[in-house]
Amino acid sequence: MSGTTAAAGGHHGEPGGFLRKYVFSADHKMIARQYMFISLFWAAVGGYFAYIIRWQLAHPEADIPLFGRPIGPDEYNAFVTMHGTIMVFFVAMPLLLASFGNFLIPLMIGARDMAFPRLNMLSVWVLGAASALLLLSFFVEGGPAAGGWTGYPPLSARTAYVGADKGMDLWLLALALEFASFLMGGINFLVTPLNMRTRGMGLLRMPLFVWMVMIASLLFLLSVGPLVAGAVMLLLDRNLGTSFFLASGGGDPLLWQHLFWFFGHPEVYVILLPGLGAMMEVMPTFSRKTIFGYRPIIVAVLVAGALSFVVWAHHQYISGLDPRLATPFSVTTILISVPFALIVFALLATLWGGSIRLATPMWFAVGGLAVFIFGGLTGIFNGSAAVDIYIHDTYFVVAHFHSTFFSALFLAGFAAIYYWYPKMFGRMMNEALGQIHFWGTFLFFLAVFVPMHLVGVGGMMRRIANPGQYEFLAPLSGLNRMITMSAVLLLLSQFFFAFNFFWSMFRGRRAPDNPWEGTTLEWTTPSPPPHGNWPGEVPQVHHPPYGYGLPGAGEDWVPQHRPAPSGAGAGR
Amino acid sequence: MFAWLPENVSTFGGDIDSIFRFIYYIVGFWFLATQGFLIYCLIRFRRRPGRRPPYLHGNNLSQAAWILLPLVIVLVLDLWIDFRSADVWAKVKVGGPRPDVVIEVTGKQFNWIMTYPGPDGRFGTADDKKVENELHVPVNKVVQVVLRGEDVIHSFFLPQLRLKQDVVPGRAIRAWFQATKPGKYEIPCAELCGFGHSGMKGWLHVHAEAQYKEWARKMWPGS
């Protein structure tokens, strides 16, 4: 419980001037908004690419509306590669981890800013540079990277194989810069909660979102090293003629897969955990009930995080790995369902007996939970090495990971945006538009990704540009067209959000300090919070978060900064 | 859901399909249980004025038991899946029966090149024959394919036989299958391998014994 209240005014003064305030800002709240706008920009680009991909699959070689012409198979590979790269590295991580991590950590733990504000500013600017390189790669000769978002060599290692030339190098550099950005961000996300909590804020009194961001950052910092090494080797293979991944020169293509997935599986949780953390904040608030199993949840996430380092080869069962290795990795993979089942059961138990108000953030949170359960369950099929022989590299896998990613990134992400928007921008979003947005997103998501599992059961491979080239896929063409239609409607539903987001920023109702009657510290300061986060003293904390229904309390909720009634909730 | 599976025509395909079904019933149970509970809560516990929710923190064992007990069921079912799955995996991928026929298959942007050892049954001799994209095998015999890659990673996929195996440059990876029904089946490449990945495919011709001999006679007329 380190006291930072002494440093009233923070580490840096109130910035003056447009550039210092909006562009070169070291204030965590402005940096959070910058991350949010970067990620929303890329989400629009990634969504547009998803539309092109889907249109091509339903109507191969036809003119694509809003694109103006058909795309060839080489361009298709580039769109698929860029869709994956953008959504994972330039939307999911900036939005959930960086934007909300930045905005909420200091506000939730009672700090005036992040531990290293200038490093924080540097991290967002490095992400800006990474974004610029990625954008540039669309306009170089040979086009952008087309080796899949996993970039398996030897395909990605030789221009003669992949077609893309400088686009591949720019892609690798953009990724390397993105990693650098999140290394800097990750240090802040770990050090700030460890060192800068206000008086009374014990580690086990932090809101779960802060725990999730901390654990996600730890996983990222521990796992990214091997991939950075791999990226450097791949750049050398491409530009200096080395053969780290080329069998012809004594290298091994599988080495990349090990390095990539050693990072890749923890990375899944880097994306997932902040999304789950947002659900864990929203669900108690709208159920008026304390979270069920605060400590078991933290233990479960730590166990899942540790297990995530020993499951990577489940991406490689049939890669040519020694087949005797598949079973141990299959066991660890399927066992990871145990900690996640605990988290799911805990969230369900949180709803039990509550007084549930289904406002937009809550709809997105419970919708996200429902889809996350679905996606988690379909993962069991992939985890079984025997079933994976058939469904590996089919649309079953695509449907599975979209169910988990979409629920954590978009459904939980929207829950977070609708929930904290009032704090971030000082205005309320429109509730009716929010509910329309939820139902459009939720129902059309199901209409896309539930039938997509069937396409996978039918055997359709990932990353083929034209299913019409295969006789055994002919029965799937109706499903594919139906999925594309639903995907278009899913994307169109996002315009309700875009309008609501920008319109509310200027015309929304002014937000009170605590519109949802939340218990955590971010609701104790004006919306939006001033520079330094609290106008006066930083509040002191007296008990754990989610103080709803405390026995002995007069009101049905007690915020963290208000002393609890005697004997109430002293259990933890 | 299983109506979408292509017809199975291999000896081990049924084992894979049965694990698929087994997992489907287990996760189907969890799906219905959790989603049913979720929907029940949203309706039963919707906000009403004056409702005061109980304080259930779940941090001590007596409360946490509510989630720990179902967790034990999750663990038991997980292990059950693991054990059944491991047997099928071992049958398909580890070792395999003694082959009746051996054929080399080389993946090369964007074709499968089949090398038949010819009547002497040995590779690297004068009667070897190379054919692009046409794989001829006898029905009900154990066929071993030796998979090699010349340029990038490909993946040898036989949807109707439930077999998939990546093809990696620098390695010779052995896979086997035993087809149970004569016919013509596609061999798509399942791993992104460049601009011609879509459409990279060959054909597996499974012949009845007489037709297989007929085909061999045409390939090696002298013998």
Question: Can you tell me the residue ranges of chain B where pLDDT is under 50 for at least 5 consecutive residues?
Answer: none
Please give the number of β-strands of chain B: 10
**CATH class assignment of the largest domain in chain B:** Mainly Beta
- Helical proportion of chain A, percent range: 55-70%
Distance between the termini of chain B: 49 Å
Q: What proportion of the residues of chain B is helical, as a percent range?
A: 25-40%
CATH architecture of the largest domain in chain B: Sandwich
* Sheet with the most strands, sense and barrel status of chain A: none
What global shape of chain B is seen?
elongated
Number of strands of chain A: 0
Give the gist of this structure:
Helix content of chain A is 62%, strand content 0%.
Report what the structure shows:
The complex is a heterodimer of chains A (572) and B (223). In chain A, 62% of the residues lie in helices and 0% in strands. Chain A has helices at 18-23, 28-58, 73-109, 117-136, 159-162, 166-195, 208-239, 253-287, 294-307, 326-335, 337-351, 360-383, 385-391, 395-425, 431-457, 477-507. Chain A is globular and about 70 Å long. Chain A has a single domain, classed as Cytochrome c oxidase-like, subunit I domain (Cytochrome C Oxidase, Chain A, Up-down Bundle), CATH 1.20.210.10. In chain A, helix 3 packs across helix 8 (253-287). With 572 residues, chain A is mostly helical. Chain A is built from 16 helices and no strands. Chain B is of the alpha+beta class. Chain B has two domains: 2-93, Helix Hairpins (Orthogonal Bundle); 101-219, Immunoglobulin-like (Sandwich). Helix content of chain B is 34%, strand content 26%. Chain B has helices at residues 13-44, 61-93, 209-219; strands spanning 101-108, 111-116, 129-132, 134-138, 143-149, 154-158, 163-167, 173-177, 183-188, 201-207. In chain B, the strands form three sheets. Chain B has a five-stranded mixed beta sheet, with no helix packed on it. In chain B, helix 1 (13-44) packs antiparallel against helix 2. Chain B is elongated and about 95 Å long. At the A-B interface, helix 3, helix 8, helix 9, helix 10 and helix 11 of A face helix 1, helix 2, strand 7 and strand 9 of B.
